[in-house]
Every structure is written in C-alpha cells, then in structure tokens.
Amino acid sequence: MKLATHRSGRALAIAALAATTGLVIAGCSSADPGSSSSDESFTIGIVEQQLANPFFANLQQSAVAAAEEAGLDVMTAESQSAGDSATQVAAIENMIAQGVKGIVLDPANASALVDIVQRARDAGILVVTVNTSLEPADAADASFETDNLAGGALMGEWAKASLGDAEPQVAMLDYDLSDKTAGARHDGFLEGFGLTDDSPEIVGTALTESNVETGQTAMENLLSAHPDINAIYTINEPAAQGAYIAISNAGKEDQVLVTSIDGSCAGVRSVQDGEIGATVMQFPSRMGELAVEAIIDFVETGEKPSGVIDSGTTLITDDPVEGVESEDSAWGLENCWGE
C-alpha cells in the first residue's frame, strides 16, 4: 500500500490500520479532526472505482485537492476491478472506525453498498455519492452526477438538426441497457431526436462493450446490413472511435454523423479531427469538488444536501447548429479530462 507524504499527525496514526486495508491517507493539518470548527481540520474519506480509468482518477484527484485546499485530512481507497464492492465496503468500515466526518463514494455496485452506507449514516457520517447513485438513490444523503438523460438529449438534438432535410437513418451503438447510465443516455438521445425505440428511422441497433474494438465490429455489421445509415448514437467515445474506423474503411466519412458522450481529451481530439461530429462533455472534477464542499458545509453548519444534483454537461462540436448550445473543440481541450 502507498501512503501519501502529506499527512497530519493523526493521519500517521491511522496509517497503521490502513496498511491492512488498502487505504491511502493524505492531509495537511495536525489539528484535532474531531472538531467541527471551520478553522480546525477533520478527516473525510474518498472511495473511488479503479483509478486506471482516467475518469475515476480525475474525479478522485479533484476531490482530494479540494479537501487538502480546505485543510482537511483525507483517507482514500479504490476498488480493484469493475463491480468490486467488497473492497469498497472494507474501506468504508475502516473509515467509520476512524471517525471520518464525511465520505465521498463512487459506488462499484449500486445495491451492494447500501447496508454499509446506512451504517455510516447511522454513525453520523454524511455520505454523498458521485458519478452514479445507489439504488435507491436516497440510500445516500445526496449524489453529484451527470444527468445522462439530458446529455443524451443534447446528442439527439444536434444530430437531428445537423441532418436537416435528409431522411434519418439512425443506428444505435449501445451498452447493456439495464445499466442505469447506458439506459439514460439511450433514452435521452431518442428524446432529443424525437424518436422512440419503435420508430422506423431507427434502422439498426447493436450492443458494444464500450470500447474501440466492439464499436468497430458493431458498426461494420450495421453498415453491411444498412448501408444508408447517416447518423449514429454511441454509448461513449471509445465506441465512437471504433465506429469511425468502420465508417472510414467503408468510405462513408461524409455520409455518417457520429455522436457520443464523455468529454475526455481523446474524445475532444476526435471532434477536432472530424471523426466525432459532436460529443457531450461531463465534468468529473466538478463532481468531486461539489461533494467535498457539501461535506464541509455539513460539518460547519449541520445542513445536509439531498437528492441527485446535476454536475453539468456541455455539447462539444465544431459544427454548431441553431438552437442547440455548444462549445467548440478548442474550448473542449481546455476543459476536458484524461489524456
């Protein structure tokens, strides 16, 4: 286990326990964290998903930075793989034992963490989720996340307006629609375009694994069956990048509009290069900052946040259309996340 070098005296004491639990401790104050006074430090916990994913890494980095800027001590932990709730449960158990005042949680499993979150809340700890909420959402005090329905709607509105008078021939490159995020993005795109799953304008659908390889394969199959496709929805930017490879190989770069969502720097560069027509940027750093601010407010005032709080979305395109607010790829590259 790695321990951060900027730790308070109390964080050093916690480190002995953390060595057996995979926790990382950081901080910059030696004040007694048991006090809720605004000029004294306290400890918060940040529990993320696997940090090899740049989205999760950016979210945690922003939360840690916001906490340290406020003079707080921080305990961090990450899941080891997709869906790894066991590591997160163990981390929260240790955070409860160490008396953290609040926990920022990006749940690896929406239902498996409900019981441990309730234990934390019963101990007087504010628990806010980021990126995705628990099931039910009110199992945590609040959630700071992307409104994926609204993000999908931006994609659909732009695609419809960009097609103009052309008859829509739309393909959907999805991920498992039982996934809350995937379902919301899919439904939002259809809503924004003015379609339903049964609309004849939807000429083909395919499931991907949200990566380049399956995006390319899915698009190759769709183009083979439906060569007149002129607009596609993709679950995320890697799937869109794979789809574009298939489109380019088929010589249909000028025929097919590609839409996506995420706002990674790689995705924005694909917009700049003309591979993706438009992508919707989400803001993991804002999620982390808002979550930490909510915990600080709770400790200082006793006021709790509630509900699902939208961390914002922005459409990125170099081909703007009337009636759909957007920013260009230059702006996107200044505000994107990842590499």
Helix content: 40-55%
Side-by-side strand order of the widest sheet: 1-3-2-4-5-6-12
Gross morphology is: elongated
**What is the arithmetic mean of pLDDT?**
90
Query: Any idea what the radius of gyration is?
Result: 22 Å
* CATH hierarchy class name of the largest domain: Alpha Beta
**Count of spatially separate domains:** 2
Order of helices and strands: HEEHEHEHEEHEHEHEHEHEHEEH
Task: Note the beta-strand portion.
Answer: 15-25%
Count of strand segments: 13
Q: What is the count of helical runs?
A: 11
The SS-based structural class is alpha/beta
Considering the protein shown, what is the CATH homologous superfamily of the largest domain? Response regulator
Notes on the protein architecture:
- The chain is of the alpha/beta class and 339 residues long.
- The protein folds into 2 domains: 160 residues, Rossmann fold, CATH 3.40.50; 156 residues, Rossmann fold (3-Layer(aba) Sandwich).
- Helices cover 41% and strands 19% of the residues.
- It contains 11 helices and 13 strands.
- Strands 1-3-2-4-5-6-12 form a 7-stranded mixed beta sheet, with helices on both faces. It has a 6-stranded mixed beta sheet with strand order 8-7-9-10-11-13, with helices on both faces.
- Strand 10, helix 9 and strand 11 form a beta-alpha-beta unit.
- Helix 3 packs parallel to helix 4.
- It is elongated.
- The N terminus is likely disordered.
